[in-house]
Structure formats: structure tokens, C-alpha cells
């Protein structure tokens, strides 16, 4: 298998195992039908989830993380390809994706936005109102450092519980193929 594969080639190549390496929230926001979600940071610990009898196609939003993941898999898998353009290319071709939640922003992106806004607010308030507001920025910086060291992100946990990040509650009888498919 080539190191990259186009959307049209993927549609014709039915035997590959599709691995989406994005975060769980990105995957839930829209993924190619039949893809398995194994985030890039978990791939080395989940090698047993990869079918050794089938070639792999790695998928992410645009292809960058999938290429990085292919590099991680290179020592143990020679039959790995990256979907050129990722799910963005798939959607541009007008092909459907499976949606499990309403959010279109990855949880990590939401955390970056929230942390950035809090830091900016702390700096602005400390500059124009009261110097003690700088502690807000320090608190956010400490939280990000803690999250980086421990892989426990309190802001991420809080945002994950927000209504826009929760899968809709649907009765099983009301769920059919058409309702699970959407075009982002």
C-alpha cells in the first residue's frame, strides 16, 4: 500500500482497516463510517486493536496527525497509508460522515480558547483595573502545567460535560442510518 491514499482510492479499497487518530470529541463530531477511533497518543498502547491481516488507513482532520502516527507505527507496520487531506478531503468530496455529537470543535481546541481568554482577561484586568488580577493568569498557567504533567485537565473535564459536547439522547428505535449520517 502507498504511504498516502486519496479519497477516491479509499472508496475503492474496501479491505483496509480505517483508524481515526483524532481525539474522541473530534471523532464524535464527524468521522468516516466504519472507522475506529484510536487517538494518536494511544496508538502505541493499542497495537492489539489493529488487525494484522488488513492494511491500515490512518485518518485525521487534514493528514498531519495521521502522518505522525504512521511514523510511530513504521517499525511494526509496513502496510500503513494516510488519507490525503483527511476527513476535510472526504467532506469536500460530498461524502457523508457519522456524527455522534453537535460540536465541531475538538475538546482540546475548546480548552485552548478558554485558557487563552482567561489569561488575556487576567492580563487586561491586571493592567487596567487591579494588579492582583494577574493571579488569574498565573492560576490558568499552573492548571495548564499540571494538565501537561499529569494528563488530567480540569478545564477539559468541565468542558466535556457541557451540553454542546454531550451526545444527544436518542431512543434506540428512533435511530436509523439516515439520522446517524450528516454532512459537516
What's the quick description here?
The protein is α/β, with parallel strands linked by helices and 184 residues long.
Molecular structure report:
There is one protein chain. This protein is of the alpha/beta class and 184 residues long. The chain has 2 domains: 4-98, 3-Layer(aba) Sandwich (Oxidized Rhodanese, domain 1); 107-165. Helix content is 43%, strand content 11%. The chain has a 5-stranded parallel β-sheet with strand order 1-5-4-2-3. The chain has a two-stranded antiparallel sheet with strand order 6-7. Mean pLDDT is 83; it is low at 171-184.
Tell me the radius of gyration: 20 Å
Order of secondary-structure elements: EHEHEEHEHEHHHHE
CATH architecture descriptor name of the largest domain: 3-Layer(aba) Sandwich
Share in helix: 40-55%
Shape field: elongated
Q: What is the mean predicted local confidence, pLDDT?
A: 83
What's the CATH class label of the largest domain?
Alpha Beta
Provide the number of structural domains: 2
Output the CATH topology of the largest domain: Oxidized Rhodanese, domain 1
Which band does the percent of strand residues land in? 5-15%
